[in-house]
Amino acid sequence: MDDIVYKDESYKITGAGLEVYKQNGGGFLEAVYQERPAIEVETKARPSLLEINKAQTLNYLNATKFDSALPVSFGHFPKLEHKRIADNLKKQVT
């Protein structure tokens, strides 16, 4: 686990997502969650993160040259769903 890219930043982003989920709960439209975070995240309000979300995230990584992303789904009940996705050429999903 020591080879996680941007470990501290990932922890803070996940914490921010959890705080938003704690304040709003789950199940609202994406617009409700986009107003809350003070950071740039691609928000999802689906029941779970799907393979198409993983593919979309990998495309974002390839286009932006970023190393990793943390897609978050606020539509998952009873808790926030999040995944760490790294560039498919550099790392695998953890």
Word description of this protein:
With 94 residues, the protein is of the alpha+beta class. Helices cover 39% and strands 11% of the residues. Strands 1-3-4 form a 3-stranded mixed sheet. A hairpin with a 7-residue loop joins strand 3 and strand 4. The model has no long low-confidence stretch (mean pLDDT 76).
The gist of it:
The chain has helices spanning 7-24, 30-34, 51-64; strands at 43-44, 68-69, 72-73, 81-82, 85-86. The chain is an alpha+beta fold.
What is the strand content? 5-15%
Alpha plus pi helix count: 3
Characterize the overall form: globular
Give me the Rg, rounded: 13 Å
What's the helix-strand series?
A: HHEHEEEE
- Strand runs, count: 5
Low-confidence stretches are none
* Helix proportion range: 25-40%
Computed structural class: alpha+beta
Q: Sheet with the most strands?
A: 3 strands, mixed
Oligomer: single chain
Arrangement of strands in the largest sheet: 1-3-4
Distance between the termini: 9 Å
- Average pLDDT: 76
Features:
94 residues, two-stranded antiparallel ribbon, 39% helix, alpha+beta, three-stranded mixed beta sheet
Topology record:
Layout (H helix, E strand, L loop, with lengths): L6 H18 L5 H5 L8 E2 L6 H14 L3 E2 L2 E2 L7 E2 L2 E2 L8
Parallel strand pairs: 1-3
Antiparallel strand pairs: 2-5, 3-4
